[in-house]
C-alpha cells in the first residue's frame, strides 16, 4: 500500500498526561496518539513530536509527524482520530507533507505562552492552565528583566539538569510580558528551548515582579555571572502555542 | 456573640457538583459551602442561594446569603473560606448586607450565559464549559427566533416538569445571540427563570440554527400553540453570570 507523510497539529490539556514522550508506564500524549493511529490503521505506527512537553504542560499547536498508509483521505483521518482520541487530546488539522518532513528536525521556531493570574482570589475555571500569584507583581520590573532575553544568548543558567542539548545557545525572537486585566501572559518565541528554559525564565520574572530579585539579574545570568536561583515556574502555566516550519519543509 | 448577615459571591465549575442544592447524598455546592462555614465558625451554618443551579451548570456570580457570628472581618472571612473550599469553588467577594437580605427573595434579576462552540473540531480546554455543535448553525435564523423571547411572556412551553413555580410568566430584559469566532454566546437576563427554561430555549435555538425548526416556532410556543419539542440543551454550556439586587436590598 502507498504511504504518505502527514503532519498533525494537536491540542491537549496536559493535566492528565505525563508529558509528550512515550514512557514505559503512564499516560503520555505520544503513546495515546500512537495507539489511536495504530488502532485506525491496524498496524504499529510511530509519531514524532516537535517538542517533548513536560507533564502538565499544555499545547494548542503541538505538531507530530508520521508515515501512514495512504488508505484514508485527510479529512477522514482527522475525523477517525478525533473519534478515537480521548477528550483532552484533539487533532486540529492534518496535512500531507514531503517525505523528509520531521516534526522536530524540520522546525524553525516555536512559540510558547506562560500565563499568570495576578489577583488575590484564586482561579476556578482555568485553575489548571494559569499560575496564581496573589501578591501584586511589578510589571515594569518584569518587563525590564524580560527585555534582555531576546536575541542570541547562552541560556545555560536557565536550563535544568537533564538537558541533553550539546549547546545551550539559543536565539529568542520574542519574549514579551503582556498584561490583560489580572492576567499576565509571557510570550516566548525562539529557534529552540532548553529543558525547563521557559519555566525558569518565568520563575525569575516572578521573583523580579515580587521585588525579591533585581531586574538586572537576568542580564547578569545570561553573561554567566553567578546569581540567585529562582524556583522553576509550575508546568501548568505553560502552553506550546505554535511550531513554525520553513515553507520548503511543508 | 453579635451576628451579621453576609452575601457571598461565588464562582464554581459545576462539573463535579450535583448542582447547588443540598441533597441527602452527593457533592453539592450548598453543602460544600455550609460545611466550610460550619468548620470556620465551629457551629452549624446554613446558606441560601439565589438559584438552584442544576448538576453541571457553572456559576461566575452565584450569590449566597447567611447569618454569621461577627467574629471575623470580611477580608479574613473570604481568606478563610477560600483556604477551606475545594479548588472548583471560590468566594469572589464578601459583603455585609441588611438583616432582611435573602439571596433568592431579594434578587431582582439574574443573568445567564450559554456557550456553543460551532466548529468541526471538538473543544479541548473548555470542553466542560461549552457545547460543541459541529454542523454549521444559521445565526440569522437563531436571532430571529431569539428576538421574540424578550419581554413579558408565559414561558410554560419552556419549563420542564418538576418546576414548582406557581406562575410561568416571566419577564426577560435581554436575550441575545452573540457570535465571536466559532463561539456563540446566548445571553439571557430576566426577573426569574423556570426550571430548565434557558436550556430549553437554547435547545430550540440550536434546532432553529440547524434548520430543523422554523424560527417562528418560538413565537408560536410562547402564544401557547403546540409545537415541536426541542431537546433540552446540555447543562455544561450554562453559566449563572450575575444576580442583580435593588440598591435598597444591599
Describe this structure in words.
The structure is a homodimer of 250-residue chains. The first copy, chain A, has 250 residues and is α+β, with helices and mostly antiparallel strands. Chain A has 2 domains: 3-106, 2-Layer Sandwich (Alpha-Beta Plaits); 109-244, Pseudouridine synthase I, catalytic domain, C-terminal subdomain (Alpha-Beta Plaits), CATH 3.30.70.660. Helix content of chain A is 21%, strand content 30%. Chain A contains 5 helices and 10 strands, in the order βαββαβββαβββααβ. In chain A, strands 1, 2, 3, 4, 5, 6, 7, 8, 9 and 10 form a 10-stranded mixed β-sheet that branches. In chain A, helix 3 crosses helix 4 (197-209). Chain A is globular and about 60 Å long. Chain A binds chain B through residues 11-13, 58, 82, 87-92, 121-127, 129, and chain B through 11-13, 58, 78, 82, 87-92, 121-127, 129.
Structural descriptors:
homodimer, Alpha-Beta Plaits, 250 residues, 5 helices
SSE layout:
Two copies of one chain form a homodimer.
Chain A lengths: L2 E10 L16 H13 L6 E2 L8 E12 L4 H11 L4 E9 L11 E9 L13 E2 L6 H9 L3 E4 L14 E12 L2 E8 L6 H13 L6 H7 L15 E7 L6
Parallel strand pairs in A: 3-10, 5-6
Antiparallel strand pairs in A: 1-3, 1-4, 2-3, 5-9, 5-10, 7-8, 8-9
Helix pairs in contact in A: 3-4
Q: What is the gist of this entry?
A:
The structure is a homodimer of 250-residue chains. Chain A has 250 residues and is of the alpha+beta class. Chain A contains 5 helices and 10 strands, in the order βαββαβββαβββααβ.
